[in-house]
Amino acid sequence: MSDGTAALRLSGLSKSFGEKRAVDGVSLEVPAGSFFGLVGLNGAGKTTSLSMAVGLLRPDAGDAWVFGVDVWADPVRAKALLGVLPDSLGLPERLTGREVLTYLGLLRGLERSVVDERASELLEVLELAEAERTLVSEYSTGMRKKIGLAVALLHAPRLLVLDEPFEAVDPVSALTVRRILRRFTEGGGSVIMSSHVMALVEQLCDHVAVIDRGRVALAGPLEMVRGERALEDVFVELVGGRVDGTEGLSWLAS
Amino acid sequence: MAGVLIAMRVAVLRHSMRGPRAWWSVTGAVVGLVLALGTIWAGAGGIGPAAGTGTLLAMLWGLWALGWAIAPLISGGGEPLKPENFAALPVPPGRLARGLLAASFVGFGAAVTLVALLSLVAYAVVTGPLTLVVAVPGVALQLGFVVMLARLVNAVAGVLLRTHAGAALVAIVWAGSMALLAQGWALIAALAIAWGPAGPELLDDIVGLLPSGWPVRAVEAAGRGEWLLAVGYLAGTAVLIAAMLLVWSRMLQRRLTSRATAPRPRRASAPGLGRLASAGPVGAVAAKELRAWSRDLLRVNHLWFAITYGVVFCLLPLMIGWWGMAPYTGLAILLMSSGMAANIFGSDGTALWLTLLTPGAARADVRGRQLAWLLVLTPIVLAFTVGLTIPSGQGFAWPIVLALVPAMLGGAAGLASVVSVYMLVPLTDPHKRGANPLGVGDNEGSVAGLTYVMLLGVPVTAVPAGAIVAVGLVAQQPWLSWLGVPVGLLTGALCAWAFGRMAHRRLDAYGPELLQTMRTGVAVTSREVTGTDGVKRLRADVKTGQDLPKWKSVTVAVCYSTGWLPLFPQGLVALGFALFGAERKSWFLATYLGPWAVPFAVLMVVLGLSIYGVGLYLPWDERRKKRAAEETEAAETPTGVEAGV
Asked: Which domains does chain A carry?
């Protein structure tokens, strides 16, 4: 079915938390060089799927491969290829942004001079240079996202896995991030990102998958998935069309 | 307001009564209850001469109040309801403060304390039934006082912990109090010498002057018929509580309307750190950790706590001119700080994902943390050891301390890494903690448990070195005692290396489980499964503890926390008393039973073992059933079905 050169391949990933089946047999293929969008409602299983895909959450069943390397059987090789921005996980709070980048680069075995150069460039591009002497614990939510993105990019990975990269990021920085990601894919890199912003996914991504209640509802090239319509309409129709907001809440206007 | 907050507190308490947390809570409550019953017994005049009952009771009440004052240290701020969560409510701060205070009365601590405070009722019955009129409100006021005290101390500590000096000050006060509790005999002996025959009266004056003793004084005054004085004592307590509440609500308002900012870090130009960081991945982690040691005020607080505790504990006997413990101050500091290094991954929270996603970083992470801890502690421990052994004049102590220091430094560095990984206790992520720097979540009971593991375990790692020194000292062979020093160096290095290896291998293999534990707050397990391709993989396992049905998990918690009562005091200890003919009747039931003492004690041992047996059987049985169910399911449904894209 696939030749193993896909940037990311998920096969039958499942995860239950207690009685709740958060992810129920998710299988996906992110072609090399593609920009892949993962959309779904809150709690649909996007973060859980991505966590299992990169080796942060052990699945109950199923497998994940990064460029043909089994994430759970050979994590070291897989992780060398990966750059990850998880959703709302901690960072070393008592370090400045530059220190976070420096130490993580050294941990990955990069040369000191390389780390310094890349850290400076990333901080500059992501407009974090001014906050150079601020501890991460003082960062705003958007700044945390950006420093997380810098961590993901630092070692020049081949696949970026980004969980809600644009959440809480200001419009100017968002534009920067979009340019960075575009350049990354143009240079041969692959990206999979989750988002609830349909317009963004439509603009950036060439492939898309809709996750609903722990399953893949629809997946494929963007043009095929949305056809002649807007992605938002396809999405709403797929996940059950729970859009109203006109009924009830009559007390709100009084 | 108060009603709703109390209901919320009850709901939080109910949800936290599961898994190991329930175990810790119930154990704490049972231990507290035993102490509380002891206090009642003392109040009824069961201990010592009748004339001293009032003094003793006031002193015990002082200890209960002290317990509440240091409770925030042990219970991590004890804020199940964070004030920040109510900041947006249109409620005046005074009302919020009163509501939160009311909610603070919900919990095991307050319930157990209430039982202990009933000792005043017992004392009143002995003093004269009429004094009950004073005793009952006295109990209520005292309960209000201690709960208010804990809130206020917590708030003050929270403010102080925002600065370096404040963090040190809080640690010094707390550690000093705790060391005094442990080593109080030396102080009492010194005071007895200094005060001479006036001692009992002076002690009575002191415990009576403290607010914790006022209700006791009120009952005594009522017993003498001085009703006005009695009412005065009670009114004094009430006024004090009101004043504390006022201060606290002011502090609460400031906390909710200002944002704490961390002091700006000094320019990152320490050349030593830079060189260390460039010396490979281990050096990078060590340099990162050393920065944390100087910037993370909780760590600053812990370090000062260890130093103060060690110094006060070992040097207090100097008050009576005894230098016997002075050479071991460095070791005491080492031991205390090792206890606080035992949850190093847990206290960093979900930042662990960075290590998990960096190939080969697990080893560097463990080794770097070990190195940083040694770099911080070794100079301190050596300075206190050498600096205090010389003036102590205890020449024979040299081989002891020089053998034990390296053995325990290495042992602690190794054991801390293993315990951090194998017994990780999830805490609130640093960036999600409220304005209270101590508010690390509701798992502090378990963190305290880790401290005990270290306090017991680290000395065990030094047994080989210690044994050789001891044999040398007993046999009066100096060469043998001095042989302990190289042995200590060797076992220390070995422990640090081997335990560290265990830790980083575990971290490599089970990193995702640790991360999930920190995300969700509950431990998860996994097991090895051979796939159809012949490759062995770890799979998430059926969960045990937290998935037990409610009644079973409560039963397990009750079993674990009560089994020791029949097994140890009422069983084994009582058996010892009965067999070796101790005559004194005390709260060991068997000592009252004459010829039936031995069979009764044996019965108690059996009962204790059965209780633990039930506690072990229930989760094991549940796990077995679930695994069987899962295997049937797995056999029926083929995995790896792909939905083509």
From this structure: 1-81+159-242 (3.40.50.300), 91-156 (no CATH)
